[in-house]
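Reviewer 2 asked us to include a model.

Predict the structure of this chain.
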Amino acid sequence: MSTDKQIRFIAVTLGIISLLYLINQFEMIWFMFTSPLAKWGLDMVMYFSPLFILAPASILIWKKKRLGWVLGAFYFAYSTENIILSLLSNLGRTPSGNATLDSLFPVVPTFNYFLMLLFYAGALWAMFKRNILESFRISTQSIVITILSSLIIVYIIVKYY
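Predicted model (structure tokens):
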């Protein structure tokens, strides 16, 4: 597959993820903008951050802009890190026996984590292919900053939330 096709594929993938996230979170978005009970804070900004990252990343990657690569790589790195942490924290977890509690916090099969990890790590790998990096003129410094920033944000979220 040519570099242009790979870039378009990444852009479309991010666009689809963005659209699915928007559809999945529509009720929450509606509540936050229409209800007097809604309270905006850093936690809600973090909750909706994929909306602020995915759509612009998709459009900017399509246009072959460096910022698009940074946003896309950041999102895929952030997601990969979160899946690894979720997988590790849920290994060996079993249902509590309380139906209400189990319906609120279901045990996710380990296989599901591996599928998500395969998808996001694969997408991250695609972002780091030499031809993609050259096309976006991404330096080693940009790669390091992108990965470190996603690691720092995941650390802050885990530590304080």
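The mean pLDDT is 89. Residues 66-90 form the longest helix (25 residues). We have added this to the supplementary material.
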